[in-house]
Amino acid sequence: MRATRWCMAVMFWLVSAGCSGNRVASDADDSVSVGSDEPVASDITSRIDHLADSIVATMTLEQRVGQCFMPTVYASDDKETILRLKRYMSDYHVGGIVLLKGNLRSAAEMTRVAAMAEIPLFIAIDAEWGLGMRLTDAPGFPRNGRLGDEADEPLLFDYGAEVARECRRVGINMVLGPVVDVVENPNGVIGSRSFGSDPKRVADLGVAYARGLESGRVISVAKHFPGHGSPAVDSHKSLPVISRSLHLLDSIDLYPFRSYIDAGLSGVMAGHLAVPAIDPQSLPAAVSSVVIGDLLRDDMGFSGLVLTDALNMGGVAGYHAADALKAGADIVVAPADTGEEINRVLDMVENGELPIETIDDRCRRIIFHKYLVGAFEADSISLHHLREEVRSGADTLYNRLAGS
Fold this sequence. Notes:
The protein is α/β, with parallel strands linked by helices. Helices cover about 45% and strands about 10% of the residues. The protein has 14 helices and 9 strands. The protein has a 7-stranded parallel β-sheet with strand order 2-3-4-5-6-7-8. Strands 1-9 form a two-stranded parallel ribbon.
């Protein structure tokens, strides 16, 4: 069954109904209560759609465009970084940020500042093997490719749920992971970031990890579509070309993404990869309407969030945020110059080069998922005992993963 807004809403509601009595905050009278009588699943989606529509209708063009951008910010609480975050929020109305290197306390300070945004932000982080990948004093877990043969779906679900618990304690609501690329060479570009070379194992473990994340109300983002496992070229530096046939792509690279989509999970990151068998123009996937629109949306039936890989990478040099939005991406990650790219999109909308309907479509989907993940609910982040609480229980999980 293909993923739909309906099944994503049901999944998040089922999780939330058992662990929260909060109400989704909104200016509208109509709100979703996750602690009351069990609603009809389709009605949940209808209500969240209504809430998203009501928010988008009140937003300026600048706010709607800004929602489509997620710049990177170091997890640092120094004055300059805090001012940069506040400027992203006040001047550019960004929809989220991606936290780079730092520590737990600084990350929590950043999320406390982000809570002042006029529209709640996605706070994302690369946590492919836990928060320790980016935050120096956070728990670290074995890389995906170093898990033992005994690692199974229940263990990976617990892994994702633990990472989600740690994320929520810090104020993070999106993980840019799991990596579901199927690797040919364990020493290659993706290497141990992947679960391995067996498409089924990669799919099973990646989906289980993502389900664990989303059970804790943290959005997962599978990457790097349509699969970065075979090229030797690093897309940070230049554009890799995937030379596989359609048959091999479908049976190897796309297999984990199909499993992820069929599971009703939330996000997919389009990589900077040229795939001639799919797009004869060999455009980077993140700016290709054939890859995102025709393949990911139409053929594979994905209705969740599509993010780009970082737009400041060499593999997409010469392209802009507007190219990604036109191609079907909802969120542009890490543009080289956020203000310049936002102004470029605004000019194109005002000149009729980029339809306002495109921006509204992307913005509605973003707001819809922010409601799903509880971003509109008041959530106070305490710094008291932060490190101890984040780390509690992590050692037990590490031992289970290391011994798998």
